[in-house]
Amino acid sequence: MNDSPTPAPRGRIMLVGLGPGSHAHLTARAREAIAEADTVIGYVTYIRLVADLLEGKEVIRKSMTEELDRAIEAFERARQGRKVALISSGDAGVYGMAGPTFEVLFQAGWTPDSDIDVEIIPGASALNTCAALVGAPLTHDFCAISLSDLLTPWPTIARRLDAVAAADFVVALYNPKSGRRTRQIVEAQRLFLRHRRPDTPVAIVKSAYRPKQRIEFTTLEKMTEADIGMLSTVLIGNSNTFIRHGLMVTPRGYSNKYEVDSGATREGEQAGRSLSTGLDGWLASLHASGRSARELAAEHRLPEDYIATLLAEAPDATETTA
C-alpha cells in the first residue's frame, strides 16, 4: 500500500495579451489559456472585453492603478495550485502585466524551476493595431513612448521624446492624455516641433477595433486640437511619412536605391549591397573630405568625439572600394 502524499498541483500564471480586444484579433493560444484558467484577473475594462469567455471561472476585477495588486493576486492563487490567466489588452509585455508580475515573483524568490509555471502569451500591441487601421506608418524605424508620468519622472520622458524626435523615428505615443494628465501631450508636441516640420503627419486612433473606434489624421502643429484621451494612440510620422488617399505611409527607403516605377538600380548603387551612403561608403567619404571633426559632426548631427575617433582610424579595405 502506497501512503505517499499526493503531490500538490503545479500552479500556473498565464500572462495573456488580448490584442485590441475584439474576438477576431484574439489569438488561438489566448483563447486556450482563458479556457484552461481557473481564475481570470484583470482591469475591469479588459474583463469586459472577454466576458463571454469567463463562464464558471473565478473572476477578479481590479482598477487601472492596481497592477501590483493584480500580480500579487495571481501569485497567491498560483501558489495554491490554481491556473491563472492574468489578462492585458494589447501585448502583456508592452506596457502590460508581464513586467510587474515578474517583479512580484522575483521579490518572492521565484525561479523558473519553482512550482509555478509562467507563460507569456503575446498579443497585437496598440501600435500594431492602430498602424493597420491607418495604413503603413511603421515600415521604417519606430519606437514607442508612454506619456504617463505616474511611475516615470517627467525629465526622463522628456529626454526620450527629444532624442527620438531629433533622430527622426516614427513614434507611437501611449497613454497620451487623461482627465488629470492634460499637459503632457502639449509638452510632447513642443519637444517634437524643435526637430520636426509643423506639417509632419500625425494619426490619432481611439479604441482600435472596438465599438467606439475613431481615426483622425492631422499634423504635428495641430495635433493637440484633436480628440485625444487614455484610449488613444498617437502616431507621429518621420520626415518622409506622408498621407495619401486616407492612408499614412512611411517609405522603407527603396527609392534611395531603386527606381520605384521600374525596379532598376540607381546609378552608383548595387542590388543586395549596402547603399553608397551606408557605413563603408560614409566612412570613406569622411576620410576623403579633408574636413575637421567639428565640421563633419555639425553636418551629420553626431557627437564630435565619435567623428574624431573615426577620422583617427586608418581606412580599411572595404572603405577604399565602397
Topology:
Layout: E1 11-17, H1 28-36, E2 39-43, H2 44-49, E3 58-62, H3 67-79, E4 83-88, H4 98-107, E5 116-121, H5 126-134, E6 135-136, E7 142-146, H6 154-166, E8 170-174, H7 184-193, E9 201-206, E10 214-219, E11 232-236, E12 242-244, E13 247-249, H8 279-289, H9 293-300, H10 304-312, H11 317-320
Parallel strand pairs: 1-4, 1-5, 2-3, 2-4, 6-13, 7-8
Antiparallel strand pairs: 8-11, 9-10, 9-11, 12-13
Helix pairs in contact: 3-4, 6-7, 9-10
For the largest beta-sheet, the strand count, sense and barrel status come to:
5 strands, parallel
Structural class: alpha/beta
Percent range of helical residues: 25-40%
The helix tally amounts to 11
- Overall strand count: 13
Strand order of the largest sheet: 3-2-4-1-5
* Structural shape: globular
Looking at how many chains there are and whether they match, the oligomeric state comes to single chain
List unreliable stretches of 5+ residues: none
Q: Calculate the terminal CA-CA distance, rounded to whole Å.
A: 80 Å
Summarize model confidence as the mean pLDDT: 92
Whole-angstrom Rg: 25 Å
Proportion of strand residues: 15-25%
Helix and strand string, N-terminal first?
A: EHEHEHEHEHEEHEHEEEEEHHHH
